Amino acid sequence: MCRYTEDQGRSLGLSGWVKNTRQGTVIGQIQGPRDKVDDMKHWLKSVGSPSSRIDRAVFSNQRDISKLEIQGFSTRY
For labelling alongside 57, which of 13, 37, 46, 47 has CA 20 to 30 A away? Predict the structure, then answer.
């Protein structure tokens, strides 16, 4: 799923990272304009990668930032 998530984040012009966990979930961090972050959250909750099964999406620690803390969008291993 991470490759598709990374591609989607980049296409929206977002910064951040994603990582598959051993439990079969995906974690990550997303930064960018609020409307684009909201688009990404919608994609994560309802679309995802072609082979993913989305049971739920949980978003936490949301806050406004004055400038990006992460550059680019990547997959972490």
Answer: 13
Query: Would you call 68 helix, strand, or coil by DSSP?
Result: coil
pTM over 0.85: yes
The owner of tokens 């680019």 is: 72
Which residues lie across from 71 on neighbouring strands?
A: none
Backbone dihedral region for residue 34 (phi beyond 0: left; psi -120 to 50: alpha; all else: beta):
alpha
Q: How far apart are CA 46 and CA 59, in angstroms?
A: 14
Structural domains of the chain, with CATH: 1-49 (3.30.70.100)
3-state SS class at 12:
coil
Most confident of 15-24, 30-39, 41-50: 30-39
